[in-house]
Design brief:
CATH architecture of the largest domain: 3-Layer(aba) Sandwich
Strand content: 15-25%
Radius of gyration: 20 Å
CATH superfamily of the largest domain: Response regulator
Number of helices: 12
Low-confidence stretches: 5-22
CATH class of the largest domain: Alpha Beta
Structural class: alpha/beta
CATH topology of the largest domain: Rossmann fold
Number of strands: 13
């Protein structure tokens, strides 16, 4: 496994040397940094690029260059990618998921960073001694309050007979925002008189073992929390939950299309689009005046009809079919 990571890093470095983001004829260059590969998370990049295009910036028009790099979940590679974009330098950085955003903040104080699929600066622990976010950090962010709505739905649709509702979850204890979310959900479970069983998961390679361990504890439902490792491991989690007839609930709308029952959460495409609108404003004005990290504007209540039927769940009236 280590050899594979080293080889991947060599490929990334070689691609840097052969495909450098040079600005030609004053065409701005965007360095887009993805922390890992995931079908749901990739929608943010699609939305970001669409927002730029709707504002008149596209590679088809040859008035912008978007250099894309994906670290495939490898932290040293992620650091190399950000260092490379900073050294060129690119005109702006677009960072997708928390690890990318935090790494970018650590590596540059001058290049504008437009984050997406990331929490607030406070939850990323990047505020200065005066409680201020980095002056070069912008984009769209999310807090944890929206989890209330997703989690509170579970006891209204699942009412086990003879025992208190038991919900299981896994979290990456090495990611501050994941551990933070776990503590938040723990408090919610106490509020709703739910027994919560949370097991740590450090990498997607351990997903099957940890999920099976969780399922052996007779949980009534699985809650897929906002965690990069959960996103990357979701198919493995779902396969094991399906075998035990355990429904998956989530706060992430993108996971409903992949097999969770329902969610109230951010539309990942729109999340990227919102960050892209800010980036387009910067490209038009060459100024960050008036820009700041702003909360996600579009959240959806969605459900998966196949999963609702499978688990015979009666829905609240304000949920719509996931698209």
């Amino acid at each position: 496994m280590k050899l594979e990571k080293y080889l991947f890093a060599i490929v990334i470095i070689c691609s840097f040397s052969s495909c450098k983001p040079k600005t030609k004829n004053n065409i701005p260059v965007v360095g887009f940094v993805d922390a890992f590969e995931d079908a749901t998370i990739s929608q943010a990049r699609t939305g970001f690029v669409a927002a730029l295009k709707d504002s008149g910036f596209s590679e088809d028009k040859q008035n912008i260059k978007i250099e894309y790099r994906n670290a495939q979940g490898d932290i040293p590679t992620l650091t190399q990618i950000v260092n490379y974009f900073v050294s060129e330098p690119v005109d702006l950085l677009a960072t997708c998921t928390t690890l990318s955003s935090v790494t970018a903040v650590q590596k540059t104080k001058t290049i504008p960073i437009f984050e997406m699929v990331s929490p607030t600066p406070a939850r990323m622990n990047v505020l200065d001694a005066n409680g201020k976010a980095p002056a070069n950090l912008f984009g769209a962010v999310e807090d944890l309050q929206y989890i209330d709505t997703s989690f509170s739905v579970i006891p209204t649709v699942l009412k086990p007979k003879g025992h208190k509702l038991v919900i299981g979850m896994i979290y990456n204890q090495s990611e501050p925002q994941s551990a933070d979310a776990m503590q938040y959900i723990k408090a919610l479970s106490q509020k709703f008189n739910i027994t919560l069983i949370a097991l740590p998961l450090n990498s997607s390679a351990d997903a099957q073992l940890v999920t099976q361990s969780l399922l052996s504890k007779d949980i009534d439902a699985f809650f897929a929390n906002p965690d990069n490792t959960v996103f990357a491991s979701f198919e493995t989690i779902k396969k094991n939950c399906d075998e035990k007839n355990v429904p998956i609930f989530t706060s992430e709308a993108g996971l409903v299309k992949r097999g969770a029952v329902m969610a109230f959460g951010a539309d990942i495409y729109q999340w990227g689009y919102q960050a892209g609108e800010q980036a387009a404003q910067y490209l038009k004005t060459h100024s960050t005046a008036g820009l700041k990290p702003e909360m996600v504007k579009i959240r959806k209540r969605v459900y998966n009809p196949e999963m609702v039927k499978k688990y015979n769940i009666t829905l609240p009236p304000n949920f719509e079919v996931v698209k």
